[in-house]
Structures are given as structure tokens and as C-alpha cells.
């Protein structure tokens, strides 16, 4: 089968553990990382140093969101896929081999993104604190979305 990505990473996300299978051509390396920001940044650095073209992970509750944001802010291409789509692809999937299975499907172009949107700006990185851009996920300086309505909804 034709390879779409030569260097790619399949990531299995758990509450306190990230398992990453980084495929470089016909070789692969599997590493485990914790779920702290420091450890997620280490994962991003490892992928950037290896020339990763694309990363993908399943939607697992909300545990994928911090990792997705860190990969995106590190200028790595990240894709989130629906677990049901992965199960529709013929093959053998076990909990132990999830990251390898995700990497294999990604490498051969058999996964479709789940519709995750990219942030519309990088104002925080540019130290713009009065940004009015629409954002997707929790960010402290956001004036729209959940953050702007949090006091109203929680009665704060």
C-alpha cells in the first residue's frame, strides 16, 4: 500500500499517559509520556526533531485537547479522528497496540480528520492581551466563547 506520510506519529491518549508511535519510513519508535505540560512539550520537541509531517490521535473524552493545542502551537500538523472511523478500517486493534495501529492507518492515508478547527490567531504568543479573535479552547485572555460567559454561567 502507498505511504502518504514518510514521517508520522500515531498517538494514544489516556488521562495520565500518552503513548506515541513515531514512524520514520519503515522504522518506528514507541515512547511513553506523561500528561503534564512539560511532558507534552517534550513529546512535541521529539516529533519536531524527527521531522514529523503529521500526528493523529483518537478523540478520548477531553484528554486530547491539551496535547492537540501544544502540537498546534509547536507548528506540528495534528489531526483528531473519531474512534468509530478507526474501527471501520479493517485490521486488528488492541489497547496495547493502539498507537502503532493509529500510526499505520495515518501513514497510509486511511484516516479522516474529525472536524477539529485551528485557532484563528496566535495573539498570546505575540503578547497581545486584548485580543478579540475567536478561539476554540480555554485560553485565559479570550473575550468570546466559554471564557467570556464563565462568570455569567457560574454566577461568579
- Gross morphology: globular
What kind of sheet is the major sheet? Answer: 5 strands, mixed
Radius of gyration: 17 Å
Which blocks of ≥5 consecutive residues have pLDDT under 50?
Answer: 136-156
Number of helices: 5
Description:
This protein is an alpha/beta fold and 156 residues long. The chain is built from five helices and five strands, in the order βββαβαβααα. Strands 3-2-1-4-5 form a five-stranded mixed beta sheet. The protein is globular, with a radius of gyration of 17 Å. 26% of the residues are buried. The model is unreliable at 136-156 (pLDDT under 50).
What descriptors fit this protein?
156 residues, alpha/beta, five-stranded mixed beta sheet, 5 helices, globular, disordered C terminus
Short description, anyone?
This protein has 156 residues and is α/β, with parallel strands linked by helices.
Topology (SSEs and partners):
Layout: E1 7-13, E2 17-24, E3 27-34, H1 37-49, E4 54-58, H2 64-73, E5 78-81, H3 83-88, H4 98-107, H5 146-154
Parallel strand pairs: 1-4, 4-5
Antiparallel strand pairs: 1-2, 2-3
Helix pairs in contact: 1-2
Amino acid at each position: 500500500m502507498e505511504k502518504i506520510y514518510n514521517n508520522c506519529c500515531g498517538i494514544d491518549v489516556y488521562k495520565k499517559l500518552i503513548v506515541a508511535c513515531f514512524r520514520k519510513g519503515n522504522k518506528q519508535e514507541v515512547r511513553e509520556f506523561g500528561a503534564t505540560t512539560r511532558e507534552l512539550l517534550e513529546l512535541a520537541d521529539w516529533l519536531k526533531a524527527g521531522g514529523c509531517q503529521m500526528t493523529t490521535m483518537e478523540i478520548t473524552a477531553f484528554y486530547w485537547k491539551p496535547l492537540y493545542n501544544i502540537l498546534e502551537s509547536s507548528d506540528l500538523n495534528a489531526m483528531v479522528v473519531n474512534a468509530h472511523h478507526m474501527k471501520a478500517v479493517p485490521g486488528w486493534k488492541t489497547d496495547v497496540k493502539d498507537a502503532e495501529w493509529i500510526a499505520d492507518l495515518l501513514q497510509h492515508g486511511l484516516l479522516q480528520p474529525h472536524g477539529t478547527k485551528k485557532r484563528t490567531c496566535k495573539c498570546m504568543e505575540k503578547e497581545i492581551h486584548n485580543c478579540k479573535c475567536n478561539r476554540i479552547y480555554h485560553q485565559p485572555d479570550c473575550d468570546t466563547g466559554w471564557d467570556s460567559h464563565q462568570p455569567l454561567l457560574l454566577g461568579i
